Write a sequence for this structure.
């Protein structure tokens, strides 16, 4: 409290005494006990009122103890149930959180993880995937800049995500509590099967299979791939204590067009504890045509290689690289990619006026914009000779096809000549350009359609950096490659636009996210945000029907169909206002990845403990784990002095006291006839 405040309080005390004396004692004929009481009440009321007006700041000091967090992450995936360890996991969790010494030393944080990670103290062990990488990523964010231990109760068998061993912060110790029977059983397993989603009719498609063996004796096994009742491939495989794995590479014929279902199986005469992992179903969609994309360029540039890789991720696409003077026939080309066109491209533009092939024009520092103005009229270029870097800005109202923002604003700038670009006619802009975060209102990636011919424009070079940045952000090229594929798919299709467009896969694996996306367009072919879309899904075998509403996203509607069992399904998407509908089918292949395990992955969990200077414990060593946590002097509670400053005017009870004093004074005076 400051000196000025103390002086004001003393002055208030004098004023309160003076006013009370003047009211009840100055020229008073009587000084009875009642007068003294009234004077005292008036003194208290006036003094309290003056104190409120001064409003001194009251400071309160208190001690606050901050405990070290103890994160307990419990594996909630169905592999825990498959290993018959669900009760063990629940008992171990309860033993940890109910330990009085641990509760006194740590702030216990309870989490569960399967494909996702979230706070929880109850577990049902029904997760379809296991992602320990999510545990590492989320704990870094939740307990940022803190030193804390983590206990992971798990079998260590991860089915999705990055390798978790090196994803945890090495500063914070991890103590895996391993559950599951570690006894080695005889087991044959199809560990992984690699096959492309698409194959071409009358060709052969490769199948790569990784087999795994657990046991201590030499064993012979039969590996087969069958379709229906027919065996299409067979191999003999031998294993021994020194040969635990085998790789098989096969070429299967694509004789029939459409979705083809196959079953891979490995068997032997010995009895196994888990035979579920001996079989794996897979599917290949056989198509009878392949679209050819021609990238035409007179220069060499990393953009061309990046574009080729992205396009050919889709097995239905074939990319050819040609010079401007090398293309004579355009009839076999589905899409022309014209990279930085100059006057050398004149013959291609002239030929394409007759062929009508859809084009993807990419400009850059070597582009002849005067020539480009002569060959097309969708965009008008007025460019200087100066180079400029252009950042991108996603336009959420874009509605030609469903596309999500994959982080375009974080991508490196594209380089193009400086100038103005104006649109002419029906041009849809997916990405607009910015210069140093200042919007130019000019397109960066745009699409146009005139008399059935479609054209896309990417105004800038160095898009290869976009693909690398997307990989840095997502640890995968997939999102960027899907973005390029959608551009090519739009250009490769010349069909009339439909009011209801639905995208889906022909087949899904059990445990995968099953998402159906749809777009509905009004009569002006504008995306209709007010559309009411529903989907009806029917199991082809049982005829059981389920109905879902499609939820609106940024530029499309979607329905998540997770939870469906394996089998064939027919579905119909309907727009309720106009009764427009779309019908198709898909198949869910029977494969539960969480049932593939016989033992916990002790090796991986021990590596994780070693990487973080922690220690792995088995399910019968829970007491040792508790003692280790309690004896570690690295984890200490922090005692802090918390100073709280409160203005006196916030004290409501003081106002109540003033009102009470004045009320009592009034009643005493009324009772004694002094009013």
């Amino acid at each position: 409290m400051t000196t000025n405040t103390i002086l004001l309080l003393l002055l208030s005390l004098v004023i309160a005494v003076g006013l009370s004396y003047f009211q009840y004692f100055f020229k008073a004929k009587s000084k009875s006990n009642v007068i003294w009481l009234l004077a005292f009440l008036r003194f208290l009321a006036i003094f309290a009122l003056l104190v409120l007006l001064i409003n001194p700041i009251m400071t309160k000091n208190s001690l606050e103890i901050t405990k070290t967090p103890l994160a307990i992450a419990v594996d909630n995936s169905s592999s825990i149930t498959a290993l018959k360890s669900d009760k063990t996991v629940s008992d171990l969790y309860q033993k940890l959180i109910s330990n009085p010494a641990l509760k006194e030393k740590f702030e216990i944080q309870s989490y569960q993880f399967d494909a996702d990670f979230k706070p929880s103290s109850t577990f049902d062990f029904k997760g379809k995937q296991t992602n320990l990488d999510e545990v590492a990523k989320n704990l870094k964010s939740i307990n940022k800049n803190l030193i804390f231990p983590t206990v992971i109760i798990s079998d260590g068998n991860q089915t999705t995500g990055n390798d978790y061993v090196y994803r945890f912060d090495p500063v914070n110790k991890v103590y895996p509590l391993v559950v599951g029977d570690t006894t080695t059983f005889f087991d044959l397993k199809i560990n992984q099967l690699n096959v492309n989603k698409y194959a071409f009719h009358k060709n052969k498609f490769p199948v790569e299979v990784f087999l795994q063996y657990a046991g201590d004796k030499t064993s012979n096994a039969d590996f087969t791939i069958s379709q229906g009742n027919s065996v299409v491939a067979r191999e003999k495989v031998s294993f021994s204590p020194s040969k635990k794995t085998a790789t098989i590479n096969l070429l299967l014929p694509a004789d029939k067009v459409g979705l083809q279902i196959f079953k891979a199986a490995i068997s032997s005469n010995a009895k196994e504890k888990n035979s579920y992992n001996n079989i794996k179903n897979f599917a290949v969609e056989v198509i009878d045509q392949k679209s050819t994309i021609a990238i035409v360029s007179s220069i060499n540039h990393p953009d061309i290689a990046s574009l080729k890789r992205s396009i050919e991720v889709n097995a239905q696409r074939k990319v050819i690289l040609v010079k401007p003077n090398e293309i004579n026939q355009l009839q076999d080309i589905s899409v022309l990619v014209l990279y930085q066109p100059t006057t050398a491209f004149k013959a291609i533009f002239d030929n394409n006026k007759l062929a009508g092939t859809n084009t993807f024009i990419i400009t850059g520092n070597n582009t002849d914009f005067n020539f480009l103005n002569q060959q097309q009229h969708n965009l008008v270029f007025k460019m200087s000779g100066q180079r400029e870097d252009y950042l991108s800005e996603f336009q959420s109202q874009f509605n030609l096809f469903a596309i999500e923002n994959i982080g375009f604003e974080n991508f490196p700038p594209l380089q193009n000549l400086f100038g103005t670009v104006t649109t002419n006619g029906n041009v849809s802009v997916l990405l607009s350009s910015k210069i140093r975060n200042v919007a130019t209102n000019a397109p960066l990636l745009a699409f146009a359609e005139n008399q059935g011919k479609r054209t896309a424009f990417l105004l800038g070079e160095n898009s290869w950096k976009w693909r690398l940045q997307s990989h840095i952000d997502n640890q995968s090229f997939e999102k960027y490659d899907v973005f390029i594929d959608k551009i090519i798919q739009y250009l490769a299709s010349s069909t009339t636009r439909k009011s209801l467009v639905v995208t889906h896969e022909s087949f899904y694996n059990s445990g995968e996210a099953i998402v159906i996306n749809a777009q509905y367009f009004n009569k002006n072919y504008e995306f209709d945000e007010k559309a009411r879309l529903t989907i009806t899904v029917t199991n082809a075998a049982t005829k059981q029907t389920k109905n879902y509403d499609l939820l609106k996203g940024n530029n499309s509607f979607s329905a998540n169909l997770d939870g469906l069992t394996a089998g064939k399904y027919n579905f119909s998407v309907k727009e309720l206002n106009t009764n427009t509908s779309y019908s198709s089918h898909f198949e869910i292949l029977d494969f539960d990845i969480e049932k593939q395990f016989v033992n916990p992955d002790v090796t991986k969990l021990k590596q994780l403990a070693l990487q973080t200077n922690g220690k792995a414990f088995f399910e019968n060593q829970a007491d040792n784990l508790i003692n280790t946590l309690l004896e570690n002097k690295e984890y200490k509670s922090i005692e802090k002095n918390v100073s709280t400053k409160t203005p006196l005017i916030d004290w409501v009870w003081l106002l109540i006291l003033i009102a009470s004093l004045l009320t009592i004074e009034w009643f005493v005076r009324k009772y004694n006839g002094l009013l």
User: Anything to note?
Assistant: The chain has a mean pLDDT of 88. The chain has 14 helices and 34 strands.
